[in-house]
Design goal:
The protein is built from twelve helices and 14 strands. An eight-stranded parallel beta sheet has the order 5-6-7-8-9-10-11-12. The chain has a three-stranded antiparallel beta sheet with strand order 1-2-3. The protein has a three-stranded antiparallel beta sheet with strand order 4-14-13, with no helix packed on it.
């Protein structure tokens, strides 16, 4: 192994319009890219620091840069798991190490660990919170997509939002994401109505830490843990409360841990969604290795941007193809 050099940079990628969820709205995706240089090879990883978890771009850059000497000394993926907590920072560095290892070995990343080669997957396309008229119009525009995800707000208009999308895209499968905005009473009131509208899955209806009640109430629509799903240690208490977990690499702290979470979730009988925070194809590419065989795939981040990096992932409508080696892995 040659001398390795770590480089870190922040990037801003404009979103196509405004992307709004229950916690707020944004027009730009702020991401951090870690690069590890070894001779002519460069391994890259991208993360999106998320204020919901106490993360910032500045703090993430500092956390990655602090490991520059370790990377130069040969830090590997296994050792990294103990050097940083599960976080966006660890995700960027972990994915950069995967990418570098693949390039140095002149093999694809999945071959390094004997994983199945990723195939073409169908991703959800997300509709952010908007007026009912705008949601209906967006649904008609996106009606060709097989799976739509609707962001909800817990403000009394959520059923109307779903109905507007159902009317605009009658053939689409629908999942919804409340982003912790409901109460137990809201859940009891809305779940049956959403079931009648054909909703397949409800993501994170209640706030993390206040969702234990879900184990004792009926689930007319299967429930997916998002903000409540952090890693291996969190999984046992999710059984019974939720039917599915949403694995996001920024939350597991990288691809290495995400693969372990997927295996343990399956062992516990939980379904799997693989999701993302809005970012470029560089962030989505490693997640495709986890998404193979998932029950739901939500890796539409680049589709929500005004532009993606080049080269990026190939999207044919809602079908996303495996990454070329020039992008990642």
């Amino acid at each position: 192994m040659g001398r390795r050099e770590l480089r870190v940079r922040r990037e801003s990628w404009p979103i196509a319009g405004t992307f709004r969820i229950a916690r707020g709205a944004k027009t730009v995706a702020e991401v951090v890219v870690a690069e590890i240089h070894e001779g002519t090879h460069v391994g890259r990883g991208e993360c999106a620091p998320y204020a919901r978890y106490g993360q910032s771009v500045d703090g993430t850059v500092e956390a990655i840069e602090a490991l520059g000497a370790d990377v130069a000394a040969g830090l590997n993926r296994s050792a990294l798991q103990d050097r940083l907590p599960a976080s966006a920072a660890r995700n960027a560095l972990d994915c950069a190490l995967w990418d570098l290892d693949a390039k140095v070995a002149e093999r694809r990343a999945w071959e390094l660990e004997g994983l199945a080669a990723p195939g073409v997957l169908t991703t959800a396309f997300t509709l952010g919170i908007d007026s009912l008229e705008a949601l209906g119009a967006a649904a008609r525009t996106q009606a060709h997509r097989p799976l739509l995800k609707i962001k909800l707000a817990g403000d009394g208009d959520d059923v109307a939002r779903v109905r507007a999308v159902r009317d605009g895209a009658p053939a689409a499968r629908i999942v919804v994401d409340a982003n912790e905005s409901w109460t137990e009473a809201t859940f009891s009131e809305l779940a049956q109505e959403l079931a009648a509208l054909g909703v397949l899955l409800i993501e994170q209806p209640l706030p993390e830490g206040r969702d234990a009640c879900l184990s004792s109430v009926p689930h007319p629509v299967p429930l997916c843990a998002d903000e409540s799903c952090h890693g291996l240690t969190a999984l046992p208490e999710l059984v019974g409360r939720y039917d599915v977990i949403n694995i996001k690499l920024d939350r597991t702290g990288g691809l290495t841990e995400a693969l372990r979470v997927r295996a343990e979730a399956r062992r516990l009988g939980l379904g799997v969604m693989v999701g993302c925070i809005v970012g470029t194809s560089l962030a989505m590419a490693p997640a495709l290795l986890v998404a193979a065989g998932a029950d739901f795939v939500d890796l539409d981040g680049p589709l929500l941007l005004a532009r993606d990096r080049d080269p990026g992932l190939r999207y044919d409508g809602s079908e996303v193809h495996p990454p070329d080696a020039a992008l990642w892995g």
